Amino acid sequence: MSTFPAHSSPPTVDVVAELPWAGHALGSGSYRRIVVALLCAGVATFTALYSPQGVLPLVAGSMRVSEAQSALLVSAGTIGLAVGVLPWSWVADRVGRLPAMKAALVASTVFGLAWIVFPGFEGALVLRVLQGVALGGVPGLAITYLHDEVRPAEAAVAAGTYVSGTTLGGIAGRLVAGPIGQAWGWRWGVFTAWAVATVAAVAFAVIAPQARGFVRARGTSAADVARSALGHLRDAGMLVLYAQAFLLMGGLVAVYNFLGFRLEAAPFGMSAGVVSLLFLAYLSGTFCSRQAGILAMRFGRRPVITGMASLMAVGALLTLVNDLVSIVAGLVVLTGGFFGSHAIASGWVGARASRGRAQAAALYTLFYYLGSSVIGWGGGLVFESWAWAGIVLLVIGLALGAIALAVASAGWLREPAEAH
């Protein structure tokens, strides 16, 4: 006989509703939508961020600035992004990761168009900083959004897939801007890349499923965000992961900022349109980032990070040879090594953070783009003083530094299964 009154029903529905959210399973429709949506977000973000890199020699000639000064168009965007990640993490804790990312992409679209049409170099730099601040709401939150919405055991593969999307964005921006800029001027080239980024942003907004794993942080203040960030900065293991981002991203951007100047000069004499085809080397990053996630599940994260950083050093050495085939091969190896390491380090940050995950990811993004801004610009001074050999030595030194930190941290930066 039932123990419930005739007008009542067993509380089955209420019990199910109170179960904690476990995350979308690998292979489910919602999982695929999340991955595809974040791939689109990666394309939108990195097309907008790095499209000037494909036309830097054209900018230098058109606006009568030096190589290092023209590279400020890239660094201005990345430093703005670094500044924006922590404020966006605060916004996301209050309104949700998904709404924050959508708002960020809308703001980026507006500022992106503004800097392209602005006539003066200094004013364009200011608008690029503002565009970067807007874009800060995407990379830092994307990994957090993934960890909120997918099962923890499958987060490494999902993060690798997202990073694959960022490489496609990097290719799109540079590959579109270069040839069109060569034909009609750098502004038209970057404008076309802006249009690609806008389409990808709309696709993200349409495809992304409604968030289910987000828990709104009530009463979270800026001081709370600062305390959370400081807590991560006191974690030696987190600092090692942040250092990976700073060192390796800086090396990658230095290579791509100044390779065009090398190849447009003697003995190569290549046009900007042809040089932009070398950015197809980013496809190796699309492949390696996902494969790195799979390898990490089998062999552990640390061996994959050190192995991928070693590939960066080998790739840099190959580009020293004054032969186009060797340069292309080196670029492919270097790019694949970077994105493989980045996929593991960024996913490790999310897995390591038991609290303040949005701030942990935001700090990783901050160091990532500080490396891009500082070393990417400083590489211009190295290039002006020591030519391409200086860039190669810089990248090798950065890679060796990242490897040394990863190896030395074995005692306190443990695999997530051990640490948690």
UniProtKB/TrEMBL annotation:
<feature type="transmembrane region" description="Helical">
    <location>
        <begin position="361"/>
        <end position="380"/>
    </location>
</feature>
<feature type="transmembrane region" description="Helical">
    <location>
        <begin position="386"/>
        <end position="413"/>
    </location>
</feature>
<dbReference type="InterPro" id="IPR036259">
    <property type="entry name" value="MFS_trans_sf"/>
</dbReference>
<protein>
    <submittedName>
        <fullName>MFS transporter</fullName>
    </submittedName>
</protein>
<feature type="transmembrane region" description="Helical">
    <location>
        <begin position="188"/>
        <end position="208"/>
    </location>
</feature>
<dbReference type="InterPro" id="IPR011701">
    <property type="entry name" value="MFS"/>
</dbReference>
<feature type="transmembrane region" description="Helical">
    <location>
        <begin position="304"/>
        <end position="321"/>
    </location>
</feature>
<feature type="transmembrane region" description="Helical">
    <location>
        <begin position="327"/>
        <end position="349"/>
    </location>
</feature>
<keyword id="KW-0812">Transmembrane</keyword>
<feature type="transmembrane region" description="Helical">
    <location>
        <begin position="103"/>
        <end position="121"/>
    </location>
</feature>
<keyword id="KW-1003">Cell membrane</keyword>
<feature type="transmembrane region" description="Helical">
    <location>
        <begin position="34"/>
        <end position="51"/>
    </location>
</feature>
<feature type="transmembrane region" description="Helical">
    <location>
        <begin position="239"/>
        <end position="259"/>
    </location>
</feature>
<feature type="transmembrane region" description="Helical">
    <location>
        <begin position="71"/>
        <end position="91"/>
    </location>
</feature>
<keyword id="KW-0813">Transport</keyword>
<comment type="similarity">
    <text>Belongs to the major facilitator superfamily.</text>
</comment>
<feature type="transmembrane region" description="Helical">
    <location>
        <begin position="265"/>
        <end position="283"/>
    </location>
</feature>
<feature type="transmembrane region" description="Helical">
    <location>
        <begin position="127"/>
        <end position="146"/>
    </location>
</feature>
<keyword id="KW-0472">Membrane</keyword>
<dbReference type="Pfam" id="PF07690">
    <property type="entry name" value="MFS_1"/>
</dbReference>
<dbReference type="InterPro" id="IPR020846">
    <property type="entry name" value="MFS_dom"/>
</dbReference>
<keyword id="KW-1133">Transmembrane helix</keyword>
<feature type="transmembrane region" description="Helical">
    <location>
        <begin position="155"/>
        <end position="176"/>
    </location>
</feature>
<feature type="domain" description="Major facilitator superfamily (MFS) profile">
    <location>
        <begin position="34"/>
        <end position="414"/>
    </location>
</feature>
